[in-house]
Amino acid sequence: MMKNGDAKVRHPHTRTDHRLEISITELSCAAESAPLARRLERLAGVREAIVNPITERAVVRFDAELTNTADIFGVLQRLGVDAGAKLVRLHAPVLGCMCDDCRQRLEERLAGVAGVEAVHLNTDEKSVTVEYVPSRTDARGLREALTGADSTDCCSPDPRDKT
After folding, report:
1. Which of 123, 81, 66 is nearest to 99 (CA)?
2. What is the model's pLDDT at position 60?
3. What is the dihedral of CA 29, 34, 43, 9, to 10 degrees?
4. What pLDDT was estimated at residue 48?
5. Does the global pTM surpass 0.85?
6. How many Å apart are CA 162 and CA 5, to the nearest integer?
7. Does domain 17-148 have CATH number 1.10.4100.10?
8. CA distance 154 to 45
9. In whole angstroms, what is the distance from residue 131 CA to residue 134 CA?
10. Which residues of the chain have pLDDT under 70?
């Protein structure tokens, strides 16, 4: 029989579940990475934080309604961690239409944000992964581009519909 604390509770993926992959440097060992992960997990909305000094990467799963990438970077900055200097990957759900026209508009909106290096849409998962350099990226522009994708109305009318 399992008691509370015997197993880590897994939160289900939701429409606000985001994953942020951050390049980190200057962590020399697991003894430095474990406290950093615990500090990130204390941030409201952070569901899981994994910090790996060997791959020089931190992966943070968070609820976008409770926290945001600026809060996560703020924690890292206050702890003196050199984070995101190389590349960051943000994985987020797309709630709107995924027709060809809407996918193209989303890709163009995201690619038009300064510092965005790549945009990968997954139509099966209805998600997008954006690779960007934080020092060159306007986080507000990224949020606005993603928010604009959450329209539930399809933007491309069926050309066969003559009504």
Report:
1. 123
2. 95
3. 140
4. 95
5. no
6. 60
7. no
8. 31
9. 9
10. 1-15, 138-139, 148-163
Q: Which two tokens stand for residue 162?
A: 């003559």
pLDDT at 38: 94
What are the tokens at 34? 């474990």
The pLDDT score that the predictor gives to residue 15 is 62
Give the domain ranges of the chain: 17-148
Q: Percentage of residues in the chain with pLDDT exceeding 70? A: 80
